[in-house]
């Protein structure tokens, strides 16, 4: 069962890691491995959400999601998107960006390093919005209660996450401008670029969120219509024929899943820039991670264990929050790649351990669904 579900992922992992060794030695191997774990950890909540929707779809649309969807996810968002980011920020053509990454890596790294403040501002703001919208939402299950409970109360204020994000961006841009001015470098004019890139990241998040909400509402409308049609057919004694409606509903499900996957893949791609600037290593690591996310989605659907480890989603979002802070800090300071990659893994591992403790506590308390034996981890 495990081999059948994760077989392709294991194969892609082996090929990707071998390719990394041939490309850049054992250091490249380590970066690709870290990127793979990063993508899996950041996208775990994506897999959970995907599984919740995918189980409602018939076998045909499940196959479409796992084939066409993989092509869009791996080749579109994980391979093409990083190239586009570098091309736009460094003002290069996509072909030129790819050519430079292979044939003139020193010049390529120089261009990427020069463009890093704008990339970091864009990505940092996008990730920060994901984290803030999560942490300001009032939810039944809380992991770090002493943080989440008061923040959930504050979250009742409209548009608070946008206000906080804009304040953080303003502080980052002003600090960057002050630092550049004190050192007399040529980066003083980039403070405005940092501000504009950060606002672009915020707008991108709001647009993607709006599209996801649109598809979700369309999906709900189609499901309601399908249920009404089935009820009317049953009352009239006619055979239930909801093929067209089911097809529309499934189609909107597919679109919704792809928009969700795109929005979640932003954090992996942007987070990858905090670890490496090399397109090849980024593509290998994120591609491996994307395959595991798809396999994990199928596994969760088949096993029906979506609610077993309830704090993993929290851990993933805290990792996103940490990455957003790291990216904003790297606008003017360098942070070691291993530290950046390890933060997410540590938070995911901690949330998994907390979930296991919670499950054991609930079992000890009688295992009832109404049990409030929440295990809240402290720092």
Please tell me about this protein's structure.
The two termini are 38 Å apart. The chain is 80% helix and 0% strand. By secondary structure, it is mainly alpha-helical. α1 crosses α10. It is built from twelve helices and no strands. It is globular. Keywords: Membrane, Transmembrane, Transmembrane helix. Pfam families: DUF475. This is DUF475 domain-containing protein. It comes from Streptomyces glycanivorans.
Characterize the main sheet. Answer: none
What would the principal axes of the Cα set say about the shape?
A: globular
Percent of residues in helices: over 70%
Summarize model confidence as the mean pLDDT: 76
Beta-strand proportion: under 5%
Q: What structural class do helix, strand and pairing data support?
A: mainly alpha
Q: What is the total tally of β strands?
A: 0
Order of SSEs, N→C?
HHHHHHHHHHHH
Runs with pLDDT <50, length 5+?
241-245, 369-379
Rg, Å, rounded: 22 Å
Distance between the termini: 38 Å
Helix count, per DSSP?
12
How would you summarize what this structure contains?
InterPro entries: DUF475. The chain is 80% helix and 0% strand.
Secondary structure: elements and pairs:
Layout: H1 2-42, H2 44-54, H3 59-89, H4 94-103, H5 105-135, H6 145-154, H7 160-182, H8 190-235, H9 243-273, H10 279-303, H11 312-329, H12 337-364
Helix pairs in contact: 1-9, 1-10, 1-12, 2-9, 2-10, 3-4, 3-9, 3-10, 4-5, 5-7, 5-8, 5-9, 5-11, 7-8, 8-9, 11-12
